[in-house]
Design brief:
Layout (H helix, E strand, L loop, with lengths): L1 H29 L2 H20 L3 H9 L10 H10 L3 H11 L6 H13 L3 H10 L4 H45 L3 H24 L9 H13 L18 H17 L3 H18 L5 H19 L3 H4 L1 H13 L3 H17 L3 H10 L8 H17 L3 H14 L6 H17 L22 H6 L1 H12 L2 H10 L1 H7 L2 H4 L2 H16 L5 H8 L4 H14 L12
Helix pairs in contact: 2-3, 4-6, 6-7, 6-8, 7-8, 8-10, 11-12, 11-13, 12-13, 13-16, 15-16, 16-17, 16-18, 17-18, 18-19, 19-20, 22-23, 22-26, 27-28
Length: 555
């Protein structure tokens, strides 16, 4: 019987937990979008705090949320961050930075008080003036006033419930006096009353939050009144425990401000903030800030590219090498991974493939890097090996780049990697599978994306030219899609396929004709002269591409 009771109690606990979860989810759904965003910010800061205290997986999740907050913060949310999360000694610094994109900061402070306290803008202005423009103090006074009113209302309802209970007890007492004829029945009623009193005492001891309440109706009313009072400003995990402000929190919030300026195209100001944060992270030299510092290098390079155009990475080459040396000495693996990728991108943007190859041979890419950095590293390695005529290694790296790419999004990277993969397979003498020209990204195996299919259409035409051995059509495809090939960096690589097209055409002519003149071969292959056809055919015979003989007299 005891085991059955334990099982029943566990089932009741599960049901109560499910009810609580459903009630909390409904309450969250009823909140406004800005309040939902604020909850996300607090959860991210909690993860950041856990990461600093030892949970590295939580730290990784917090840093990955940086891009989620871009272009989402209204002005009042920035004001809320200033007065609730940031300590007073850093508040002026953050205020000066936020004023670069929020011109009417005092007005937004008034709006924040009005929204959170549920009062009019005029009342918020008056209260802010009374407290010498202290937003937090003014808001706390509004909340204290509302709490007083709520307590008064709760006490009034408690008194009403007491009166109703006393009236109910008097009525039940009269009935018992009329009906109480037998002494035995009277004794039983007294025993029952004493047992009820003992139960009520036990209930009071179990629940210390009940004040002068013996009825469930009164408890429900109190809980409803307490739920009506919402204080969403204070980001405290517990009323006794305040949120800690670590250097990682400072870097995280400053980076969000720099990205806000970046999205508003204030690149110079954003770049200056990032440079200052990079120096700050190097001075602190904390392993828990490595992930955030890697994001700093990434956005610093992006901001430099927006300022200087295509030559942006070439300008910061020395900056990248200096910081890579510092990251290696400090054993900052996350920063090493992004800096290696940026250095390779810098070399490839200036077509310095030999220097990039030497750098790759000496620099070891950290195995603990994130998958998106691994994907970019394999992509650049594949390009370098392709230029260096190492097609088998290049094919492996391109396949790894596509596999390690993010499962959702990053279409530009996936399409560009697929283009290089197609060309490398053609250079190796293989014809790519038809399905590679209709990619099904994001795990959707039923439908194709017509935009992606259109992006790979010129490469399908090149593949058909190589397969058919049609040199005229091949030259036409190169001229028609010249801009696309130059943009992808494949214009010069595709010229190597000319020899493959000619070899395929020669094989077809060799099968179809027992005798054919060199002039006809030149005409069919689209060669410029009979002499070119002679040299090409002789080389093909020597390499064993075709089994033929040249009649030098009749040509």
């Amino acid at each position: 019987m005891s085991s059955m009771n334990v099982v029943k109690s566990e089932e009741k606990d599960k049901k109560e937990e499910e009810k609580k979860e459903s009630s909390t989810s409904t309450q969250i759904n009823e909140l406004e979008p800005e309040d939902l965003l604020w909850i996300e910010i607090l959860k991210t800061l909690d993860k950041l705090e856990k990461g600093v205290e030892g949970d590295l997986s939580a730290l990784g999740r917090a840093t990955r949320n940086i891009n989620r907050f871009r272009k989402r913060f209204p002005s009042t949310t920035w004001v809320r961050i200033i007065y609730t999360i940031i300590p007073s000694n850093y508040r002026k610094e953050f205020k000066d930075l936020i004023c670069n994109f929020i011109s009417d900061l005092p007005q937004q402070e008034i709006q924040l008080i009005s929204n959170l306290a549920g009062v009019s803008i005029d009342d918020a202005k008056e209260k802010l003036k009374e407290n010498n423009n202290d937003v937090f103090k003014a808001l706390m006074e509004f909340i204290a006033e509302k709490e007083k009113l709520a307590k008064i209302e709760i006490k009034r309802k408690q008194e009403e419930l007491k009166k109703e209970r006393e009236a109910r007890e008097k009525k039940t007492g009269k009935v018992t006096e009329v009906e109480d004829k037998d002494k035995d029945k009277g004794d039983k009623m007294e025993v029952d009353k004493e047992e009820d009193k003992d139960k009520d005492k036990d209930k009071k001891d179990d629940n210390a939050m009940e004040v002068d309440s013996d009825d469930k109706e009164k408890k429900d009313d109190d809980s409803k009144e307490a739920e009506d009072i919402k204080i969403t400003l204070i980001p405290l995990k517990d009323r006794r425990q305040k949120r800690k402000f670590y250097p990682e929190t400072y870097l995280f919030l400053q980076l969000l401000i720099a990205l806000e300026l970046f999205d508003r195209e204030q690149y110079k100001l954003s770049l200056s903030i990032m440079e200052r944060l990079i120096n700050f992270s190097k001075e602190q030299n904390r392993r828990t800030s490595d992930l955030i510092s890697s994001r700093l290098y990434q956005f610093h390079a992006l901001c430099t590219q927006r300022l200087n155009g295509d030559s942006g990475l070439a300008v910061m080459r020395q900056f990248l090498f200096d910081n890579y040396q510092t990251a290696s000495l400090q054993q900052n693996e996350s920063a090493q991974s992004i800096l290696i990728v940026l250095i390779l991108q810098c070399y490839i943007s200036t077509s310095s493939y030999s220097l990039a190859n030497k750098f790759v041979e000496k620099a070891e890419f950290p195995e603990s890097s994130e998958s998106q950095y691994f994907a970019r590293y394999h992509y650049y390695r594949g390009r370098i090996d392709c230029v260096q005529l190492q097609y088998s290694d290049s094919l492996y790296h391109m396949q790894q780049a596509i596999r390690r790419a993010p499962q959702t999004g990053a279409y530009g990277f996936k399409v560009n990697s697929t283009r290089w993969l197609i060309v490398i397979q053609l250079l190796m003498g293989d014809i790519p599978d038809r399905g590679i020209f209709k990619p099904k990204f994001d795990g959707n195996k039923d439908t194709n994306n017509p935009v992606l299919n259109e992006a790979l259409k010129p490469f399908l035409e090149i593949t058909e030219c190589v397969r058919a051995g049609d040199l005229n059509r091949y030259q036409k495809c190169l001229t028609e899609s010249k801009e696309l090939f130059n943009k992808c960096g494949l214009a010069k690589i595709l010229l190597r396929l000319r020899h493959n097209v000619i070899k395929t055409g020669l094989r077809k002519i060799n099968k179809a004709y027992s005798k054919i003149s060199l002039s006809d071969i030149a005409e069919k292959l689209g060669l410029s002269s009979q002499e070119n056809a002679y040299f090409i055919v002789s080389k093909a015979i020597r390499d064993g591409v075709i089994d033929a003989k040249i009649d030098y007299e009749n040509k």
